[in-house]
């Protein structure tokens, strides 16, 4: 599926960047192939426009913010958060030509991130309950570009067969390649998937898992939020520690994503410091990134049309593809993909 060609994907919210990145001025982002600029119209309130001035096409992200509006860095034309040009400094009284405006987008802050929808969203920004549940702390982890597709990243998130191979250097048990069964319940937002995962517990992870046993269990309550967000809901039964990761595979274009990842823990900084939690998950992320960047990003969602072999543990990914195909069909679209094999 080539995400930039599937119009319905423009009607979902995506986490595009940490809001803290806007404190020193506007920033560019490419979402589904569209160049946008985001800035702070007031503290904690972001806005998004097309990154292209309607005067002589300069990128507005090269400009600056003044009184909540964005000022083009070329000749100073000024735009409000709805995209209307409100001032042309060279004209008498700053008057503007009729119809001078730039495309605006839906833009909100949530969970420390700026979220953008290119068109009227079909549903709300996903609800992540740990954000407001007492006893949890939020930890910013990773924000980085990967050369893969959003679907590849999502299916990998529910693929328990790769742990013994991709993660054999961190938590994977090489001699236990057969994954436990997943219990999957489809929901209105995607699905929930519960399973148990035995893991290697090296000394570097003792304070993460809360145990010093050589191996331990993860009890997983994962969720997939259509189209490209997921919850990694890990509980360590022995210690009662929760390690709840949210990932957004925000589609930049057909072959790259911005991975946004943050974490909720039900313990304290004394139990396990933020730096330790980032240091533990960082090499795991590199392992996933390296294998995903070695795949073809053009994952075909209609599995009748492209040859890929599957095994029983690929079921979550296959449900994902079916639900995405159904979404396209409900909106009168057919899948666009590049490969013909
Ligand atoms: S190009 Fe933006 S003000 Fe001229
Ligand atoms: Fe992985």
Automatic annotation (TrEMBL):
Pfam family, one: VanA_C
Keywords: 2Fe-2S, Iron, Iron-sulfur, Metal-binding, Oxidoreductase
Presence of the UniProt keyword Cell inner membrane in the record: no
Coiled-coil positions: none
Domain of life from the UniProt record: Bacteria
Domain spans labelled Rieske: 13-116
Residues spanning the signal sequence: none
Keyword Iron-sulfur appears in the UniProt entry: yes
Protein name per Swiss-Prot or TrEMBL: Rieske (2Fe-2S) protein
Record organism: Herbaspirillum hiltneri N3
């Amino acid at each position: 599926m080539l995400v930039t060609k599937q119009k319905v994907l423009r009607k979902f919210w995506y986490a595009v960047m940490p809001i803290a990145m806007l404190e020193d001025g506007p920033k560019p982002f490419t979402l589904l192939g569209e160049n946008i600029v985001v800035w702070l119209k007031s503290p904690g309130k972001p806005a998004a426009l097309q990154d292209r001035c309607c005067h002589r096409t300069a990128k507005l992200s090269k400009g600056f913010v003044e009184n909540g509006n964005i000022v083009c860095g070329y000749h100073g034309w000024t735009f409000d958060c709805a995209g209307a040009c409100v001032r042309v400094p060279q004209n008498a009284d700053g008057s503007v030509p009729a119809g001078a405006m730039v495309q605006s987008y839906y833009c909100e802050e949530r969970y420390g991130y700026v979220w953008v929808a290119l068109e009227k969203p079909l549903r709300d920004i996903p609800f992540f309950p740990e954000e407001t549940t007492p006893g949890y702390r939020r930890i910013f982890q990773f924000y980085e570009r990967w050369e893969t597709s959003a679907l590849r990243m999502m299916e990998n998130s529910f693929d328990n067969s790769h742990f013994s191979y991709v993660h054999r250097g961190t938590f994977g048990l090489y001699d236990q390649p057969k994954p436990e069964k997943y219990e999957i319940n489809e929901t209105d937002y995607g699905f929930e998937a519960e399973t148990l995962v035995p893991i290697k517990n090296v000394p570097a992870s003792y304070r993460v898992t809360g145990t010093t046993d050589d191996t331990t269990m993860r009890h997983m309550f994962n969720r997939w939020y259509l189209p490209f967000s997921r919850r990694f809901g890990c509980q360590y039964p022995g210690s009662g520690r929760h390690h709840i990761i949210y990932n957004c595979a925000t589609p930049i274009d057909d072959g790259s994503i911005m991975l946004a990842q943050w974490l909720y823990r039900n313990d304290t900084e004394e139990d396990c410091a933020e730096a330790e939690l980032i240091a533990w998950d960082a090499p795991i992320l590199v392992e996933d990134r390296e294998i995903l960047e070695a795949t073809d990003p053009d994952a075909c969602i209609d599995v009748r049309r492209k040859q890929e072999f599957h095994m029983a543990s690929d079921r979550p990914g296959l449900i994902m593809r079916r639900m995405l195909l159904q979404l396209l069909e409900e909106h009168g679209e057919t899948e666009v993909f590049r490969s013909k094999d």
